[in-house]
Amino acid sequence: MTGQKQALVLASFGVSDAAARAASLDAAAALLQQEFPAWQVYQAYTSNFIRKRLVAAGVQAFSLPELLTQLADAGFARVLVQPSHLTPGEEFDHKVCAAADEATALFPAGLAVGQPVFAEPADYGRVLDAVLPALGLMPGEELVLFGHGSPHRHNPVYERLQQVADDRQLPVHVGVLEPMDTPNLAMVRERLRQRGSRKLLLAPLLLSGGSHVTRDMAGSNPDSWQSQLVAAGFAVRTDMRGLGEHPAFRALYAQKVRQALAAVKW
């Protein structure tokens, strides 16, 4: 590796809110630069919508294909793309893996892609171990994790996370926003009813805060999860921090990079 320029790209869906972006994505990128000083860390965003908003606000934001082309032109020989995406879903397949496949020939020493946070069986326990202490459940509280889900196909990651939490006998209930995916809010409410739960902590199973958290999870509108749970008779406390705001969760990305570097034959 000596003498060859190496880039480590943190590829994310993106966040338009500056404070949420700084607390999650920028903090994760800074950690990777600290942990892997031999690599130059960059960020790319896979959401066209987010990129347009950022560019309109005067913020530099590149798609992954754009950034990979720039890195090749700048003489980088080796690139590792580490997704910040939580699950190996459509965004990961179509926006990260596809872009990497198309750009492979640009890098003579190789281009590799790391795994999402939820990629292997041990990851589910690792996420719970990272998140639960950071959230600090109060006595008698049960945790409802608010995920996004997949808009076009069922993503079994959420059900697997729920199964691991149940196997550990943890007071954790996982739900997703997307109406075509499961477990949905109605299923979460039924779980809570069967357990006789009364006090809840509602927190995002999302990398960063933003409109999904402020509006769909904890908004004052009657359709938000908080409003619906309160209307159903639960006492609800909210934690608005995205997963990326927890240092122990950000450390999972460094672990994924180490795994990728160990697995790739450059």
From TrEMBL:
<dbReference type="GO" id="GO:0046872">
    <property type="term" value="F:metal ion binding"/>
</dbReference>
<keyword id="KW-0479">Metal-binding</keyword>
<dbReference type="GO" id="GO:0016852">
    <property type="term" value="F:sirohydrochlorin cobaltochelatase activity"/>
</dbReference>
<keyword id="KW-0170">Cobalt</keyword>
<dbReference type="InterPro" id="IPR010388">
    <property type="entry name" value="Anaerobic_Co-chelatase"/>
</dbReference>
<feature type="active site" description="Proton acceptor">
    <location>
        <position position="148"/>
    </location>
</feature>
<feature type="binding site">
    <location>
        <position position="212"/>
    </location>
    <ligand>
        <name>Co(2+)</name>
    </ligand>
</feature>
<dbReference type="GO" id="GO:0019251">
    <property type="term" value="P:anaerobic cobalamin biosynthetic process"/>
</dbReference>
<feature type="binding site">
    <location>
        <position position="178"/>
    </location>
    <ligand>
        <name>Co(2+)</name>
    </ligand>
</feature>
<feature type="binding site">
    <location>
        <position position="148"/>
    </location>
    <ligand>
        <name>Co(2+)</name>
    </ligand>
</feature>
<dbReference type="Pfam" id="PF06180">
    <property type="entry name" value="CbiK"/>
</dbReference>
<protein>
    <submittedName>
        <fullName>Cobalt chelatase</fullName>
    </submittedName>
</protein>
